[in-house]
Design a protein that fits this description.
Mean pLDDT of chain A: 79
Oligomer: heterodimer
Helix content of chain B: 40-55%
Number of strands of chain B: 2
Low-confidence stretches of chain B: none
Radius of gyration of chain A: 35 Å
Low-confidence stretches of chain A: 1-9, 485-490
Number of strands of chain A: 25
Shape of chain B: globular
Structural class of chain B: mainly alpha
Order of helices and strands of chain B: HHHEEH
Largest sheet of chain B: 2 strands, antiparallel
Number of helices of chain B: 4
Largest sheet of chain A: 13 strands, mixed
Strand content of chain B: 5-15%
């Protein structure tokens, strides 16, 4: 017994300790806690910490048990009785208990998983110790026709802001090369196309907390010829050699040549909005005074005391001043809002959306409610069976409080069993969930314990909520009536509440059905919408420098192959942003007009290859040598340029490029359907711009054709890996986050349906059982099977139908809010509501019919004998 | 006055025996040694509470132990009423068990 410093180092379990302290209230003494500590430290020394922990918890539970038992009449013996009776009840009605418990477990598990997902989404970028002081600069562009928030800024902005404003401690620019296509990286034999390259200033590592395993953060990016790679990349390119000091070759428009590895990064955490495997510093030749171009993202680190609102307003005119862009207004976006609140154009991809977070939080509450309502309904439905027991208990002296306690015990027992099963379900299904949702959620005892709080809250909430109604209800049954044997088949007041519960449950279910349909429809709408071009059977390849030069020869050679329909190229793929400019000029342009125009350079045949529709003028053609200075524009551009035909008009750019419009193409979506179509000007590409080769192949014998292309590739672009992709895959991946959410939603809806209908099944079987005598009598009096079935199901069908009325307006509300996010969206037509309602009814029918038909065909002789 | 239950009697006796050292931990440990059963703290303190309510024991807080982080223990001691109860229990015990030899309940040896 030595309360020495040893005790100080060995802390007992916190939660258990807290529980004990709460128990001591009863005694008005804290002695029990100290006693525990004494023995605990003894155990720690003698038998190790784990044993001591288990001992502590076990005895805390036992003590709690004793204390509670003590407050009941007759002490803890009665508590044992309650548990025994509860256990017996559960075993006696196996089917019923299984339905109850599994329904509850599934709903708790789903609720938990969703909340885990939500928690993850809400905690993006929190690993940064400067989390509260990091901001991104956004440009709010007020054009004549609309307002657009863009994330891209000019290169000189970062250093200018740091110099001019003392409240800004550090600033950095970043450029995600993903937007310009893949980069070919090579180390000797190993070469791969990578798309996780980030260009940044040296201050990047000071602002953000990406950990370096090797290298000093303050020097690792100071040499423009250096590169920092992640551990995974180190393994990939250098196996187990030390990569520091070695050279990696980059071949891309923006970075060319060898870069020396100067440091190694830990893997970027999954909850970072910036994802990269390579970190490269900006090259000094990036025009530092170029205020006209916008292609970098700017982040700043503020001093603790800086007023961010004030600063935000102060910087708003910076770009306006420096570049003459009247429409520009800069402001600061805090880091905490980037992942979920960025409805911003020209942004990096992969953001989540706060609307989904809301949607899923609501869903989690719904699911839990459904499970709880299920539980409450089923528990109270069987109450009539217990009436005699309750009557007897009341007779021998049970107070109402005791009965409440008894039924609470039963509920808690069921909830605890469900909890055990929930934990099992979670362990099994967490990896599956991670797969579907694309996250890496995990639950472990060390580190962030938020999941534990969530779990405990769910259990507490469910236990208390689901327990209270049955407990109160059952304890208030009047014994006299019961013992006299008057078994009413449906007690009116009670049934009303039960009916309301069923309605709410079904309303929720129908809302989820409707939502799933809407979400699926929207997603397939997006994917199948007529994009204005055909992307099927087109593969694309990234052209290295060699190939860019020898492109024409390569093209000729390829076209001789039989499976090839078109060979063309474009500087920046249709789904990437590429570049745009607000300084394009044309005949008759209103000098006040501020609008962003996108530019693309393509190879001849591009329009044909993608089956775009020329609605005025003509396509590019080699016959017209002047076409190298010609442009094709899309409808939106034409509409902006002029009222009548734009053909023949000149368009010029600040770089000096000029061209005449020779054709107008029908509008097509080149970015995701989230963004509205912007005006685009397409010109003929020079050698350097033919970075992405697009080959349209015949849909027959695709594999063979690709093999032949590969052979040609090896001739014209030796040493570079042959990596091709189908364009339609690429584009649908824009919607991968939508797809994921859609899939997740579908699964969850299915589960909700499952729970609800299982509940319905249980309820129906019970009610039919109760009315066996009634059915027997009806049959004996001549009712047909059909009439009986109708009679039995009538009530349920009415309830389900009624839930529709509740569900429809709510569903419509929720879904329209969600759809607002999309620039192109479906209309929620009446069809969806009708289908959902019919589905709900149909399944209800099927669920009910089994029981009712069985009851209806039963021999009345048997049922009237039923005791 | 109602009789002591078996557990109450045992614990009361232990408190009387332990004199100065009668608080939670040693009470529990000694109980185990005698009966071989582990009495969990909840039950123990329940019993102590009941007995205190009945007036059989009193509790006092001891001074804090003379070391860093020393705890204040709650010491229990038998009251006069408690002593009476013990005496009564002892008498009943004696009366009921009088004359029964130490070997009465041993296995009968084959004759």
């Amino acid at each position: 017994m030595h309360l020495t410093r040893k005790l100080m180092n060995k802390k007992p379990p916190v939660i258990a300790g807290w529980l004990l302290k709460k128990l001591s209230f009863y005694n008005d003494r804290y002695a029990i806690y100290d006693d525990f500590l004494e023995e605990y430290s003894g155990f720690c020394n003698k038998k190790g910490k784990l044993f001591a922990w288990l001992w502590f918890w076990g005895h805390t539970a036992a003590a709690a048990f004793e204390y509670f038992g003590f407050t009941l009449y007759r002490g803890r013996i009665i508590l044992k009785n309650y548990l025994k009776v509860a256990e017996r009840n559960i075993k006696r009605n196996k089917v019923f208990s299984i339905i109850n418990i599994s329904g509850l477990s599934i709903s708790m598990a789903c609720c938990f998983l969703i909340l885990l997902w939500v928690n993850d989404e809400l905690n993006y970028d929190t690993f940064n110790k400067n989390y509260n002081n990091i901001y991104r600069v956004i440009d709010k562009r007020i054009y004549t026709t609309h307002i657009s928030h863009v994330a891209v800024t000019s290169p000189p902005l970062a250093s200018f802001l740091k110099a001019e404003y003392p409240g800004i401690l550090k600033s950095t620019r970043i450029l995600d090369l993903k937007n310009f296509g893949k980069v070919l990286i090579r180390n000797g034999e190993k070469s791969f196309y990578e798309d996780n390259v980030l260009v940044a200033d040296p201050s990047f590592l000071d602002i953000f907390a990406y950990n370096l395993v090797r290298g000093d953060p303050s020097t690792v990016l100071s040499d423009p010829g250096s590169v920092v790679i992640t551990e995974k990349m180190a393994k990939k390119y250098f196996n187990d050699e030390d990569p520091v000091g070695k050279i990696l070759n980059f071949a891309d428009g923006m970075i060319n040549g060898g870069l020396t590895v100067s440091g190694i990064l830990e893997e970027v955490p999954h909850n970072s909005h910036l994802k990269f495997d390579f970190l490269v510093p900006f090259q000094p030749r990036e025009r530092r005074d170029n205020w006209q171009s916008n292609y970098v993202l700017t982040y700043v680190l503020l001093d603790d005391h800086t007023d961010q609102d004030l600063l935000s307003r102060q910087i708003s005119g910076v770009k306006k001043e420096k570049s003459g862009a009247e429409f520009s207004n800069l402001y600061l976006q805090p880091l905490e809002r980037i992942h979920l609140y960025s409805d911003i154009n020209w942004d990096i991809k992969g953001h989540g959306d706060i609307k989904y977070v809301y949607l899923f939080t609501i869903l989690s509450v719904f699911i839990l409610l459904v499970g709880s309502i299920n539980f409450m309904n089923l528990s109270t439905a069987r109450s009539t069976v217990r009436k005699k027991e309750i009557g007897v208990r009341k007779m021998i002296g049970a107070r109402k409080l005791d009965l409440v306690f008894q039924f609470y015990t039963e509920t808690l027992l069921t909830v605890l069993i469900s909890f055990g099963i929930t934990v099992l379900l979670l362990v099994v299904f967490l990896p599956v969930f991670n797969n579907v949702s694309g996250k890496q959620l995990s639950i472990n005892l060390s580190g962030d314990l938020t999941w534990l709080y969530i779990l405990c809250s769910i259990i507490g909430f469910t236990g208390i909520l689901s327990g209270s109604y049955p407990a109160v209800f059952l304890s208030s049954l009047k014994p006299a009536r019961v013992l006299k044997g008057k078994m009413l088949s449906s007690d009116n007041a009670r049934s009303d509440i039960r009916r309301i519960l069923v309605i709410v449950q079904f309303a929720i279910t129908i809302i989820t059905i409707i939502s799933t349909f809407v979400i699926s429809d929207q997603i397939s709408f997006i994917e199948n919408k007529n994009l204005g071009y055909h992307k099927d059977n087109i593969i694309y390849l990234k052209a290295g420098n060699e190939l860019k030069q020898s492109f024409d020869v390569f093209k000729n050679d390829l076209q001789k192959l039989s499976g090839i329909l078109y060979v063309t190229a474009i500087n920046s793929l249709l789904d990437k942003r590429g570049s745009g400019s607000t300084a394009a000029n044309w005949d008759g342009k209103d000098p006040e007009l501020r609008i962003q125009v996108i530019g693309r350079s393509v190879e001849y045949d591009f329009i044909k290859a993608f089956k775009m529709e020329i609605i005025e003028g003509r396509d590019f053609s080699k016959e017209f040598t002047t076409d190298t200075a010609a442009y094709i524009i899309n409808e939106s551009a034409a509409n902006i340029m002029t009222q009548d035909s734009p053909l023949g008009k000149w368009i010029s750019w600040p770089t000096g490029d000029k061209g005449k419009v020779i054709g107008v193409v029908r509008d097509f979506h080149f970015t995701s359907l989230h963004d509205a179509i912007e005006p685009i000007v397409i010109g003929i590409a020079d050698d350097d711009s033919r970075s992405n080769i697009c080959i349209k192949i015949n849909e027959n014998n695709i594999a063979d054709t690709i093999k032949l292309i590969e052979e040609k590739w090896k001739v014209y672009s030796p040493g570079t890996p042959f990596e091709y992709q189908f364009l339609d895959n690429n584009i649908t991946s824009l919607y991968s986050s939508e797809e994921r959410i859609g899939t997740l939603f579908q699964y969850l809806t299915t589960l909700t349906l499952f729970i609800t209908y299982m509940g319905l099944f249980g309820l129906v079987s019970f009610v039919t059982e109760q009315r066996t005598k009634e059915i027997g009598i009806r049959k004996a009096l001549g009712a047909s099977v059909r009439e009986i079935v109708q009679h039995l199901t009538k009530e349920f069908i009415i309830l389900v139908t009624f839930s529709n009325f509740l569900a429809w307006p709510l569903a419509y509300l929720i879904m329209s809010k969600w759809l607002e996010k999309f620039a192109y969206r479906i209309e929620i037509g009446p069809g969806i509501f009708i289908i959902s309602a019919s589905t709900a009814l149909l399944i209800a029918f099927i669920t009910i019919s089994y029981q009712t038909i069985k009851a209806a065909v039963a021999n009345p002789v048997e049922s009237l004998r039923y005791e | 006055m109602s009789e002591l239950t078996k557990n109450e009697e045992l614990i009361l006796l232990l408190i009387w025996r332990l004199k100065k050292d009668a608080y939670g931990v040693p009470l529990r440990q000694n109980f185990k040694e005698i009966t071989g059963k582990m009495l969990n703290y909840g039950a123990l303190y329940n019993i102590l509470y009941q007995m205190e309510r009945k007036g059989l024991v009193t509790s006092t807080e001891s001074k804090p132990e003379a070391k860093k982080g020393g705890r204040r223990k709650i010491m229990y001691s038998v009251t006069s009423q408690g002593t009476i109860a013990l005496k009564k229990a002892q008498e009943i015990q004696k009366m009921v068990w009088q004359g029964i030899s130490d070997y009465a309940f041993d296995e009968k040896v084959n004759e």
